[in-house]
Specification:
The protein is of the alpha+beta class and about 180 residues long. The chain is built from five helices and six strands. Helices cover about 50% and strands about 15% of the residues.
């Protein structure tokens, strides 16, 4: 399956940020970013209209999948922050469920040697802190994005159009109180 170059580059950057992890392969990451639920969440955040689009050959076979229209740099930053929130939340759940194979003991001492393991709940608490920071980052990116995309309704200070319109039903002229400027 082929993906647009920008999507491959985006996923490779996310993958390199995660480091060498088997549970977050490029295939998994592509699947996460192409999941309509995750893309829909991004659309809800930024009032976007992005959708997963299949690319078809002349014979009608699917040759690739992408996101249309292409995500810009700001949108990619927000999408990456959403993934970070998901990632740290998942890591916290894994720490609490025992997926990290952390035993019941936290400290072993024998002679001059001491071995200390991280407590599961402490590890989960740390990941939850990272998740909260990632969520705050995503929220701030969304606020900045929406602020930069907003446009003024009127730049000259007037939003009233002089005049009226003819109402055929009762054969009279109506003058609206205000109407957005053109």
């Amino acid at each position: 399956m082929q993906y647009p170059k920008w999507l491959n580059d985006f996923v490779n950057n996310v993958s390199s940020d995660l480091g060498d992890r088997d549970d977050y392969s490029s295939t998994y990451l592509i699947g996460w970013f192409l999941d309509p639920a995750n893309l829909g969440y991004l659309n809800n955040q930024i009032d976007g209209c992005y959708e997963v689009t299949p690319y078809l050959s002349n014979a009608g076979k699917v040759t690739g999948i992408g996101i249309e229209p292409q995500l810009g740099n700001q949108e990619q930053s927000i999408y990456k922050a959403n993934f970070d929130t998901f990632f740290y939340g998942r890591e916290a759940k894994m720490a609490l469920s025992g997926s990290y194979n952390i035993g019941a003991w936290t400290t072993l001492k024998e002679g001059n040697s001491t071995i200390t393991r991280v407590n599961r709940s402490e590890l989960a608490r740390t990941y939850q802190g990272f998740r909260k920071d990632a969520q705050d980052n995503a929220n701030n990116l969304v606020k900045q994005y929406l602020k930069s995309k907003s446009k003024a309704q009127s730049v000259d200070g007037t939003d009233v159009v002089d005049g009226g319109y003819w109402a055929e039903a009762n054969r009279s002229v109506y003058y609206p109180r205000s109407e957005p400027g053109l």
